[in-house]
Design brief:
globular; alpha/beta; 345 residues; 4-stranded mixed sheet; 5-stranded mixed sheet
């Protein structure tokens, strides 16, 4: 073998030996995996939005971050996932703001009965300074809020009778979220309110452990409550937001670029989710009728009676969240309602 060929061969061998550990190192650099838990099933509006968020995170990070979506409460109900995030055992979740009231009382603002008249008001308050102020109260507790999604206006279902007036609620055993405002509200309205995780609800309805529940149209449809509930009353008694949460312990270990990817993907997912949820809600009512549910709208006069009955509940919410926040919210809503009608959507 000539000296030149021997030198070339040795160079190729050396290059191969050098490349081998570099290739191995490249294989060891895995994308950052994010476990994202949620309560509904994959085919729900919540499931679709989590899937959209996951694709945005992967796209914006160039594949360096990947979301593993885990639905159907496989990681536990909202309260359990919140504690997992606080402890750093889980990275992300989306769930009801109502189940956060035990962590930060300001979240009870969103549980106020008949707070919003329409989605325009809800978007403006949630995405504005008031929504940000409430969200900021989570960080000292170990959670980072990114955006609010829409669950929707909540409505009543039950298996006993149509609810056409306030008195029809008397004695109905109604599942509510594990939240004192919901408990107090429905007990004040005459129902036998029972706190229960969402993950246990279908079975409880099926076995008649509870007679009814209250949720937005999309959740009633995607969770197949029509199989165990006959009557649906359109009450729009509470506008119910979801909130996308991150473990602060985990978040603090991310780079600024990684945090930006999650924030940007969250905003994009919020816009997708609200549009999807609102389009699906109208279709859901029609489908629930075809599934055999009897649907009736609560007359405005009866809704007004419910509002009057709940005055004491609203006063206690104001006291618990702080009157400054309560008054700021009421002033912002009054300003929105004074805006020209043509500006409304």
């Amino acid at each position: 073998m000539s000296a030149m060929r021997r030198t070339l061969t040795l160079s190729l061998i050396a290059g191969a030996l050098l490349a081998a550990p570099l290739a191995a190192l490249a294989q060891d650099i895995k994308p950052r995996l994010i476990r994202f838990g949620y309560g509904l099933n994959e085919n729900s509006n919540q499931g679709r939005a989590v899937k959209f968020f996951a694709s945005e995170v992967e796209r914006l990070s160039g594949g360096k971050m990947k979301v593993r979506a885990i639905g159907a409460a496989a990681l536990g109900p909202d309260v359990q996932m919140q504690q997992a995030l606080i402890g750093g055992a889980q990275e992300m979740m989306v769930g009801s703001t109502a189940t956060l009231v035990g962590i930060t009382p300001q979240m009870a603002l969103w549980d106020t009965p008949f707070l919003f008249n329409n989605v325009r008001e809800a978007d403006a308050i949630l995405d504005g300074p008031i929504g940000a102020k409430v969200m900021a109260t989570l960080e000292p507790k170990g959670l980072v809020g990114l955006v609010y999604w829409e669950n929707g206006f909540r409505n009543l279902t039950n298996s006993k009778r149509p609810v056409q007036k306030l008195e029809d609620l008397d004695g109905i055993k109604l599942r509510v979220m594990q939240n004192n405002v919901f408990l107090e509200s429905f007990r004040t309205l005459g129902a036998n309110a029972v706190p229960m995780p969402f993950s246990e609800l279908f079975s409880a309805l099926e076995t008649k452990t509870v007679d009814g529940q209250e949720n937005p149209f999309n959740t009633i449809l995607s969770s197949k409550f029509f199989e165990v509930q006959k009557y649906l009353t359109v009450t729009n008694h509470v506008y119910s937001p979801w909130i996308v949460l991150v473990s602060k312990r985990w978040w603090d270990g991310l780079s600024k670029d990684e945090q930006k990817v999650l924030r940007d993907a969250a905003v994009a997912s919020r816009d997708f989710e609200r549009k999807d949820t609102r389009e699906a809600a109208g279709k859901a009512v029609a489908e629930l009728k075809t599934k055999g549910m009897q649907v009736n709208e609560l007359p405005p006069a009866e809704a007004a009676r419910m509002r009057d009955r709940l005055t004491r509940v609203n006063a206690s919410i104001g006291a618990n969240i702080g009157m400054d926040l309560w008054n700021e919210t009421q002033a912002a809503l009054a300003k929105l309602r004074a805006a020209p009608t043509v500006a409304r959507k």
